[in-house]
């Protein structure tokens, strides 16, 4: 028998309904003929027994024209009997029972008339569709909620595992005290994503300075800065960038600084315990969990030839729990925004460009410039001091990105190459440029005149060559220190230097300058130190130099100067302490006015062509202990026939041999 819910039942297939005798049924469990017969159906119940269910022949034109069903039943019969087979565990003859019978019921199939299909009846159809849509939507919503809950519970754990794998290296693992919670894991993810976008994706590469710094700031930094707002993330990035700088400059801790290192970082991804590596002897005030350190301050010896390190106690070490603006060498504004990094003489090694890129190697930005991590983190940086370290490589053009840079000090390293032109084009706020004591070469570009805010220009002890640009005269507004000692600049001295009336320190010695000393230099009345020694200058010493009444040192030795020394005008130099004109071809008598200079302590007059003996006035000044001319040298050898006999000289020199000997 075919299920009547799937096909029509013919008129001849009426199903008998037999009631179960002697059984009482609950009405709530029974379906009687009265319950299922519609107005258009007929059923004979008068005889007291259930008979056949009959349906009137349909007169619906639409239903008569319905095409054959897919099960190919005959729809051409005029009498159609529709029924649905359903189990009815009731007694149809005895009516409604009040008690439920515990006896086993004899259940037979009962044919219940089905409703005829009415294409115009949309009520039931729309209700069923709405019901199905509601049920489906609720199901989908429930599934979405389950998936969301699963993501909230399991995704942070997975991310925590990924983050842990990021910060692992090939070194033996170290047990960490930090236990990641779902909240911390979410914070870590937010921070890592932000720093990767703002600074470098190298944070995701294990073993890099970026990942080491991330491990520290996320899991070991006692401050544990918030990461809820953009401002929080910017403040965190400031602290993080300084940590990247430290790890890069120490090669992830393998070459710590001379002083003020972190106490211990042994719980990071690699073994790193640096506090006592190189500063055991200097961190005498360091105790466990101490933030203070003894800083080794780098200075020059009094004679200027040696580098010395002086202990300065009570400074704050790097990566301590205190605010990063208190770390030694970090310069900040009143609102605790980093504006400078001044780490001088700490033995930092490696390539300068690599240091600026966070140790990740030269990364090329979209504008084809080499990546500068410090520039990304601190675009408003004003002070960069990395002098007296062991840095190599060239000057990164990315330095020009620091539009607010005021002070750039890189002297005392091993940098090479030329000064990028972009320095002169973009660093127009620069006040101090100190690139001395490196291996830089090339020519000094004429665009040097664009740095009109410059106060100090120091290019000493490099390999610069060519003519010194006359555009130096455009720096007259502020330039007060200029040193190019120990290069290969050649050609005549620029007369435009005479415009630099604010100049205090003028050191252009040990070059290849030729020609005469410009008389315009007499306008440099603020000069304290005036050095043109060890060049190839010729001609006479301009009398105008005696206008340098503020000068404490005038050194013109080892040139080819000729003619006599100024006489009367020489007495104007009452502040002069050091006067060196030796190793020239000067002629004439030694002026007695030297004895009138009350501040003079050193006068080197030897290996010239002076005539006559040392004036008595000079010897009288030299005889005053600890005051007068204590270091006086002249050509007073050989003793039997000296060109310039001297009874008060501290050393006598022999013109024929060039040897000077101290006088006993």
Layout: helices, strands, pairs:
Elements lengths: L32 H4 L4 E3 L9 E3 L5 H4 L19 E4 L21 E4 L10 H44 L15 H17 L10 H11 L10 H20 L42 E9 L6 E10 L13 E3 L5 E5 L6 E3 H5 L16 H5 L5 E3 L4 E3 L14 E3 L6 E2 L3 H6 L5 E3 L4 E4 L13 E3 L4 E5 L13 E3 L4 E5 L12 E3 L4 E4 L13 E3 L4 E4 L13 E3 L4 E4 L14 E3 L4 E5 L12 E3 L4 E3 L4 H7 L8 E7 L13 E4 L4 E4 L2
Parallel strand pairs: 8-10, 9-11, 10-12, 12-14, 13-15, 14-16, 15-17, 16-18, 17-19, 18-20, 19-21, 20-22, 21-23, 22-24, 23-25, 24-26, 25-27, 26-28, 27-29, 28-30, 30-31
Antiparallel strand pairs: 1-2, 3-4, 5-6, 7-8, 31-32
Can you put this structure into words, describing what you see?
This protein has 664 residues and is of the alpha/beta class. It folds into 4 domains: 1-121, no CATH class; 167-328, no CATH class; 335-407 and 415-422, no CATH class; 564-664, Leucine-rich repeat, LRR (right-handed beta-alpha superhelix), CATH 3.80.10. Helices cover 19% and strands 19% of the residues. It has 10 helices and 32 strands. The strands form 6 sheets. Strands 7-8-10-12-14-16-18-20-22-24-26-28-30-31-32 form a 15-stranded mixed beta sheet, with no helix packed on it. Strands 13-15-17-19-21-23-25-27-29 form a 9-stranded parallel beta sheet, with no helix packed on it. It has a two-stranded antiparallel ribbon with strand order 1-2. Helix 3 (123-166) crosses helix 4 and helix 5 crosses helix 6. The longest helix is centred in the first third of the chain and has 44 residues, at 123-166. The radius of gyration is 50 Å and the shape is elongated. Mean pLDDT is 78; it is low at 1-117, 156-181, 270-282 and 362-370.
